[in-house]
TrEMBL record:
The organism of origin for this protein: Odontophorus gujanensis
GO cellular component, one term: early endosome
Record lineage: Eukaryota, Metazoa, Chordata, Craniata, Vertebrata
Keywords from the UniProt entry: Endosome, Metal-binding, Phosphoprotein, Repeat, WD repeat, Zinc, Zinc-finger
Extent of the WD repeats: 20-51, 195-228, 238-279
A biological process term (GO) from this entry: positive regulation of toll-like receptor 4 signaling pathway
GO molecular function, one term: zinc ion binding
The protein's name in its UniProt record: WD repeat and FYVE domain-containing protein 1
Amino acid sequence: MAAEIHSRPQSSRPVLLSKVEGHQDVVSAALLIPKEDGVITASEDRTIRVWLKRDSGQYWPSIYHTMSSPCSAMAYHHDSRRIFVGQDNGAIMEFHISEDFNKMNFVKTYPAHQNRVSAITFCLTSEWVISTGHDKCVSWMCTRSGNMLGRHYFTSWASCLQYDYETRYAFVGDYSGQITLLKLEQNTCSIITTLKGHEGSITSLWWDPVQRLLFSGASDHSIIMWDIGGRKGRTLLLQGHHDKVQAICYIQLTRQLVSCSADGGIAVWNMDISREEAPQWLESDSCQKCEQPFFWNIKQMWDTKTLGLRQHHCRKCGQAVCGKCSTKRSSYPIMGFEFQVRVCDSCFESIKDEDRTSLATFHEGKHNISHMSMDVSRGLMVTCGSDRIVKIWDMTPVVGCSLATGFSSR
């Protein structure tokens, strides 16, 4: 359970402040305690632990509680010091943490799901605990009575959840790659819309209620920004990770998006610029540049006595092109392509050198990341994963918040 403490160098990368070890299995979730030098962790080893920083600089567990089933998700409400822990068996258990963070009292158990709980959120104003699970449903329960208020079922595992407290809108991502927007009522719900754009399962969601933006990360390695608040449903695609995007956090004050992927990648995206929306891919039976037929266009192949070609798409213009008309590769960050992608030859010529300037920074977390949480007010981030290690990072060198939010040196 050693911690590594580093001074803050003048760098433009995340600074590892502490490394917390001691779990016997995957760490499912880790949360920084606001205004405290502490971390709460939930693990597949069936433990809930509250780690407090000692005078020695090391983090030691002040609370070590063993559950009946592996812990899969967690939500913490700091003002009331209530913690909700989802388990592999589908139950959610509520605890109350003492003011000195040295004791945790059991409150009640919620029979929320029939299978693993994947995400939890707590709404104090309505006294609801809302959760998703691998039983393909979202449920909302009353924390006063402990009773189930409602359930809504999907065709796939419900994998992640975000909730707008003012409108009672719930955003639920699932393993089919779809995001469903629900309006939750006391005992029922209605489907507002469904969002489709990812080619892999939804792994993470983040809702910004101020700008009314929804961000989604997926196993297809991409992030999509959905403009829920207006502007004709505008969407922006961000591609820079090389593994599934496990966690995202949007910093509204500085218009930056922080994302983490399973291979340990940490990215900080500049969203305070006018980005271009990626085009829809066009369909055609022949190359839209040289008009050579694609291999399924039997009639044109017969008429022209030529072999059909394989279809590709230019990422910049969306046209269907053959390999000979798209021999070039280029990054195009303003459209979200941070690494080189296929573009047609004419689009390649139109891209200037300054257009290839990166609009994101990429860093190495040096461990498998399955969950991330940020304390934006202090510029701190915590990551955890299947390597059983919890890392605490100073993100102020890369998110540039110190002047805007008045961060003090730790």
